[in-house]
Amino acid sequence: MGRFGRPRGPSGRVIDKEKDVILDVLSPYPTHPEIGEKKSKHLVPQVIHRITIMTANGEKKNIVIVGGGIIGSTSAYFLSHHPSFNPATHTITLLEATRIAGGASGKAGGLLALWAYPSTIVPLSYRLHKELADKHYGAERWGYRAVHCGQLDARGRKLTGPSVDGAKDRPTDERDGGSLQDKQAVSLQKRSKEAIGLLRAAGLPKDLDWIAPESAQGYEEMGDPSTTAQVHPYLFTTSMAKLAEEKGVKVIIGSCKSINVSKTSKTVESVTYTDSSDNSSHTLPADTAVLSAGSWTQKIWPAAPISALRAHSLTIRPTRPVSAYALFTAIALPKDFARTGEGAKKQSRHSRAETVTPEIYARPNNEVYACGEGDTLIPIPATTDLVEVDARRCQDIVDYVSSISDELRNGEVTARQACYLPNVSTKGGPIIGESERVKGLVIAAGHTCWGIQNAPATGKLVSEIVWEGGPKSANISSLEPARWGL
Predict the structure, then answer these.
(1) pLDDT, mean of residues 435-447
(2) Partner residues linked to 454 by β-bridges
(3) For residue 161, what pLDDT is reported?
(4) Count of CB atoms within 10 A of residue 434's CB?
(5) What is the pLDDT of residue 200?
(6) How far apart are CA 64 and CA 91, in angstroms?
(7) Which residue from 465, 421, 438, 441 is spatially nearest to 65, judged by alpha carbons?
(8) CATH 3.40.50 describes domain 144-177+179-225+309-422
(9) CATH superfamily, domain at 62-109+233-305+425-484
(10) Domain residue limits, the chain
(11) What's the pLDDT band for 198 if we cut at 50, 70, 90?
């Protein structure tokens, strides 16, 4: 018998039959691979050198994750980093139609907040973001940092000349993100006394000095660096997928055609896809399929109540580094506010005064992200690389943010883009859990605009569902697929 009344196996191993756990106790104070020898001595008395948690009956698992966005990529990360995963025994495949982070996950704002929704998973996910950044150098690798967040009321200025329209655009890629830790925003002292007075009168924080003084009308804090943070979505998503690959996950670029279910046992048995390089058809054996295809979920599983909302956004490289603020704005445009760019001839001026609400997020790589309202004018295409971008809508966002900031107005547009956000079309969401109708089908979809924020919690919960038989880190009964009849 071993300590604590548990039987010993060969080589001094303590075996817990109830949990199928093998605890290796070959040394009294073994060095923990992540926290070092000194801190290892402060662990619980039964200090362990290695823990291997077996699946319930020790069977081989073939897991296919459908969708290489942030939900699929974090699911791949946590599944492959779970102690039950053994690449010599199990397989994990991440199946993506175009490229990792090719859709909303590469074009989102990347805001993280403790005040996001749903409250069942937000605190867990916010904490995991910090832990992932600490473990994998997220500040340098994917731009993780704490930020201020607020509601800005402003008055748009007339556009008397061209804004940043006409800059050469390109999609987001590895050149974006990173850090400018050696550069600081220009001090507020460079503003005139009159300008400083206007900003103070509007209640703007001292370091929010890249809003035109004559535009600022009011500011209300929504979050501070203790409750709000950000990541660069493209870099975060691709990093999660890369870290999963390093653990043995195989990434396949191919379009999922079907998740195949046994008619008799109602269990997942395989996933069929078309290879994107040569259009050939293949079928992967699978006992577990994680459906995390975002706005494309319903195309693969028609019963899933996931709808798609198109959203346009852009990135601007401002004339100087700006302070770390995420702004939800309400910009009152004057009646004679002039549009620029494509569509200006058709509608050169607004016929009436109106209020627009772009979101503006400063990023740590001397980049500012801005997005506008969504639309449902264009149906979702077959794949993310076929998403139609409305140039006029992008230019409207440029004009709106230019009307309240010279740093943005005189900057350079580096990307104009559109994506589709996945929403649960009936109620609540996201949907996270194993289907009660099909064994082995785990659904993780419908994360709305908070997909980046809630991805780590979703990925961790998916790993617990697959390897441990159910979610352990959070109570997600309100998000289970059965609530939607799945």
Answers:
(1) 97
(2) none
(3) 53
(4) 23
(5) 56
(6) 8
(7) 441
(8) no
(9) FAD/NAD(P)-binding domain (3.50.50.60)
(10) 3-53, 62-109+233-305+425-484, 144-177+179-225+309-422
(11) low
Q: Is the pLDDT of residue 197 over 60?
A: no
- pLDDT digits over 375-399, tens only? 999 999 999 999 999 999 999 999 9
Query: pTM of the predicted model, to two decimals?
Result: 0.81
Nearest to 384 by CA among 65, 142, 67, 74: 67
Q: Phi and psi (nearest 5°) for 224?
A: -120, 180
Residues 404, 211: contact at Cβ < 8 Å?
yes
Q: Are 231 and 251 in contact (CB under 8 A)?
A: no
**Cβ distance 453 to 111 under 8 Å?**
yes
| Cα–Cα distance for residue pair 264/257, rounded to 1 Å | 21
**Residues 457/110/101/330 CA torsion (nearest 10 deg):** 130
- A 10 A CB-CB count for 235 gives 24
Measured distance CA(482)–CA(184) in Å, rounded: 50
The strand pair at 145-146 and 148-155 is best described as unpaired
Residues sharing a CB contact under 8 Å with residue 127, sequence separation 6 or more, in sequence order: none
Note the pLDDT tens digit of each residue in 204-242.
999 999 999 999 999 999 999 999 999 999 999 999 999
| pLDDT at residue 483, rounded to an integer | 95
* The pLDDT of residue 353: 64
* SS3 labels along the chain: CCHHHCCECHHHCEEECCCCEEEECCCCCCCECCCHHHHHCCCCCCCCCEEEECCCCCCCCEEEEECCCHHHHHHHHHHHHCCCCCCCCCEEEEEECCCCCCCHHHCCCCEEECCCCCCCCHHHHHHHHHHHHHHHCHHHHHCCEECEEEEEEEECCCCCCCCCCCCCCCCCCCCCCCCCCCCCCCCHHHCCHHHHHHHHHCCCCCCCCCCCCCCEEEEEEEECCCCEEECCHHHHHHHHHHHHHHCCCEEEEEEEEEEEECCCCCEEEEEEEEECCCCCEEEEECCEEEECCHHHHHHHCCCCCEEEEEEEEEEEECCCCCCCEEEEEEEEECCCCECCCCCCCCCCECCCCEEECCEEEEECCCEEEEEEEEECCCCCCCCHHHCCCCHHHHHHHHHHHHCCCHHHHCCEEEEEEEEEEEEECCCCCCEEEECCCCECEEEEECCHHHHHHHHHHHHHHHHHHHHHCCCCCCCCHHHCHHHHCC
Q: What is the mean pLDDT of residues 15-40?
A: 36
- The two tokens of residue 269 are 């048995």
User: Is-contact 63 93, C-beta < 8 A?
Assistant: yes
As a residue count, the chain comes to: 486
